[in-house]
What we know:
By secondary structure, this protein is α+β, with helices and mostly antiparallel strands. It has two domains: 158 residues, Heat Shock Protein 90 (2-Layer Sandwich), CATH 3.30.565; 95 residues. The protein has an eight-stranded mixed β-sheet. Strand 9 and strand 10 form a beta hairpin. Helix 3 packs across helix 5. The longest helix has 31 residues. The radius of gyration is 22 Å and the shape is flat. The protein starts with 6 loop residues before the first helix and ends with a helix.
Amino acid sequence: MAKKKSPRSINRYFFFIIFFAVGLIAGLTLTKSLIVLNSNSLTMQIASIKEDSKFFSINAELPQIKKAPKSFNRSVSAFVTNSISQFKKDSSENWATREESNPPGTPKEEYPDSPFVFVGTWEPAQLNSDTLSFIVRLSYFSGGASSQDSLQTFNYNLKGKKEIKLSDLFPDDSDYLKKLSVISRNSLSSSLSQASSGNVDSQILDEGTEPTEENFSQFIFNGTTITLIFPRYQVAPGVFGEQQVMIPQDKASFESLYLESL
């Protein structure tokens, strides 16, 4: 006989997602899902933007939270749709430049051998009736020397109806940026040294971990851990990609990690 799970176990670990299509408008597919996690219900729409043609291959998804203000949802969608518009513009210009640079007499090609590709994904760190924390990642190739990528994190207090800033996670600590800088520089120096066989570009690393709000503007958190996210090129050459540093939210653990990193 199968072992019956206790209600507590189900409440803690079980979640379900019910999807049903609600529309297809100008290439934007909206899928509505009800997510129940740890007894906190949250209704959202997953917007899927797709385009398949001889010139473009676009596949992006982003969340739209019913309980959040329209301004928040617009900021999430704007990050993706504005990036798609720029991607199309750059791709078209690069293709035109390539055709113009062909030797005289070369037959003009109407379309590239393969379409220009744009992919958008999102990853939640925390989604409940109180707090939203997730990241949207974009990857695309518009005909340049290599593919490109960008990211944006979104952190929002649904009850307080306001954006959650990194400083909000370090109340009464005016030196939090300095401490994050020390911890991040130490952690990344170690991981990048291993990845590069000891050839760490200290200038890029030092500049990218200076204790400024801009350098630490990308983060997500789940209630116990803050993940600092450094986009490609911020702390290392592009070949090493995106970098992350995990920070404990517990004040005592954070202070201990800071002292260890000095």
